[in-house]
Specification:
The chain contains 17 helices and eight strands. A five-stranded parallel sheet has the order 2-3-4-1-5, sandwiched between helices. β7 and β8 form a beta hairpin. By secondary structure, the chain is of the alpha/beta class. The protein is globular.
C-alpha cells in the first residue's frame, strides 16, 4: 500500500469486531441519560453488534443488560428471561431482591392479572430499588422486539402482545420506576407490527426517542475495508480496491466484510475490477452469501396483498440507471391506477429503507447490493 495513504477516521477493528460506531454509541448513551430509545435499522445493518458493544463497554456508572428476545414465544417466557438477567445484575452489585421474594411467596394465590405481569412488576421494582441502593444505573436492552411481539401475537393473540408493550411503557413512565431505561431494537417493522396488532391502547412506543442506524460513514467504510484487506494480506491496489468496496456496498459493514472474505477466498489481487467480479459472483450465487433472500421474504410478509405491484416497482427501479419519479412508476404494467395506493406503497418502502427518495421526489434503491441482486433476480425469471 502507498505509505502516504492514511485515513484518520478514528476506529480500529477492535476485539468486539465493531468498527466505526463510536460516535453513534456516544450519542445513544447521551440520550439514555434522559430517555429510553427505539433503535431501528434494516436487516443486517449492525444493530446487534452495536448493542452488544454497548453492553460490554458502558460508560462509568452504567451497567447494560442485553437480551436477545427473537425466539421468545410467550409473555411468561419473556418475564422469566428478564427476571434471570436482572437477578444476575442485582447479585453482581452485592444485593438481594426484595419484591421477587414476596412474589415467590404469593405465587399460587389468586391473580387478577396474569403472573407474567406480576413477575415483571416485581423484577422491575427490584431493579429500581437495587439501582438506588448501589448508585448504579441499569440499561435494559431488548433486541429483536418486533419478532418477539409477532411470536406472542401468534401464540397468545394480538391483545397480549400489546399488553407487553403497554406494561414496558408503564415502567418507563410511572413515578416509582421512572429511572428504568430501555433500548427496544429491531428491524424497521415496528410500525407494521403495531398496525398488525391493531393497537388501540394509544401509542405504546411514543415516549421513546427514535434512533436509526445507517451505513458507516464513507471514510470509516473505506478504513474498514483497508483493515480487512490488510489482515488477509492480499496483493493489488488496496486503496482503490477498498474505496470500491466501500462504494459498491453502500458502506454497510456486513457486505464490506463479505466482499473482503470472498476476495481472500478467490485469492486474487485486490483491485476495483476484482471487487466488481466478486460482488457479481456473490450476487449470482445460489448459496446467497449476502443473505439477500431475507429482504424478499420481508416484502412477501409485509406487502403480501400488494406483492405484485411492489415487485413491479422494484424490478423497474433495479434496472433504472437513475432515480425514477412516482409519475413514471404509475404507468408501469401491473400497477394499480389508484394513485393513492401507489404513493402509500412508495411511502412504506421508503420508511422500510428498501427505497430512498431524493430531494426531487424520485425513488431508487437504498442498498446498492440489494439493487444489483434484484436486477439479477429479474433476469432469472
Ligand atoms: N460496525 C461494524 N463493524 C464491523 N462489522 C460489523 C459492524 N456491524 C455489523 N457488522 C457485521 O455484520 C454482521 C451483521 O450485523 P448484525 O447482526 O449486528 O446486524 P443486525 O442489524 O442485528 O441484523 P439483523 O436485523 O439481521 O438481526 C455482523 O455479524 C458483523 O460481522
Ligand atoms: Mg440483530
Amino acid at each position: 500500500m502507498n505509505s502516504s495513504f492514511r485515513w484518520n477516521v478514528g476506529g480500529s477493528l477492535s476485539q468486539s469486531g465493531v468498527f466505526g460506531r463510536d460516535k453513534f454509541i456516544d450519542q445513544t448513551w447521551d440520550i439514555l441519560n434522559r430517555n429510553s430509545v427505539l433503535l431501528e435499522a434494516p436487516r443486517r445493518m449492525g444493530k446487534t453488534s452495536l448493542l452488544r458493544k454497548m453492553s460490554v463497554d458502558p460508560p462509568p456508572g452504567w451497567d447494560a443488560i442485553y437480551l436477545d428476545i427473537e425466539c421468545v414465544q410467550t409473555p411468561d417466557e419473556f418475564a422469566s428471561r428478564v427476571r434471570d438477567v436482572v437477578l444476575e445484575k442485582i447479585h453482581s452489585w452485592g444485593l438481594r431482591p426484595k419484591y421477587l421474594k414476596e412474589f415467590e411467596r404469593w405465587q399460587g394465590s389468586l391473580y387478577t392479572t396474569g403472573p407474567w405481569k406480576d413477575l415483571l412488576i416485581a423484577v422491575i421494582a427490584d431493579l429500581c430499588h437495587a439501582q438506588q441502593a448501589s448508585g448504579r444505573r441499569a440499561l435494559l436492552i431488548f433486541d429483536e422486539m418486533p419478532m418477539m411481539l409477532e411470536r406472542i401475537a401468534d401464540s397468545k393473540g394480538n391483545q397480549t402482545a400489546i399488553e407487553v408493550l403497554d406494561l414496558l411503557r408503564e415502567f418507563r413512565q410511572s413515578n416509582e420506576t421512572k429511572g428504568v431505561r430501555m433500548v427496544l431494537s429491531g428491524e424497521l417493522a415496528f410500525d407494521q407490527v403495531l398496525a398488525r396488532l391493531q393497537s388501540n391502547s394509544g401509542r405504546p412506543l411514543n415516549d421513546l426517542h427514535k434512533m436509526e442506524l445507517g451505513p458507516l460513514e464513507r471514510a470509516n467504510a473505506v478504513e474498514l475495508a483497508i483493515q480487512l484487506l490488510d489482515g488477509q494480506r492480499l496483493n493489488g491496489d488496496w486503496a482503490a480496491a477498498a474505496t470500491r468496496v466501500a462504494d459498491i456496498t453502500g458502506g454497510i459493514p456486513f457486505y464490506i466484510k463479505k466482499v473482503c472474505q470472498e476476495l481472500a477466498k478467490a485469492n486474487v489481487p485486490a483491485t476495483p475490477a476484482t471487487v466488481d467480479q466478486i460482488v457479481r459472483a456473490a450476487i449470482a450465487s445460489p448459496s446467497d452469501p449476502f443473505q439477500l433472500e431475507i429482504f424478499r421474504r420481508h416484502l412477501q410478509k409485509y406487502y403480501h396483498a400488494d406483492e405484485k405491484q411492489v415487485f413491479a416497482i422494484l424490478a423497474h427501479l433495479a434496472a433504472a440507471e437513475h432515480p425514477v419519479s412516482a409519475r413514471k412508476l404509475f404507468y408501469l404494467p401491473n400497477i394499480s391506477d389508484d394513485e393513492e395506493l401507489v404513493f402509500e406503497l412508495l411511502r412504506r418502502l421508503t420508511v422500510d429503507r428498501i427505497l430512498e427518495r431524493d430531494t426531487e421526489g424520485r425513488y431508487s434503491f437504498q442498498n446498492p447490493i440489494l439493487r444489483q441482486w434484484w436486477a439479477m433476480r429479474e433476469c432469472r425469471f
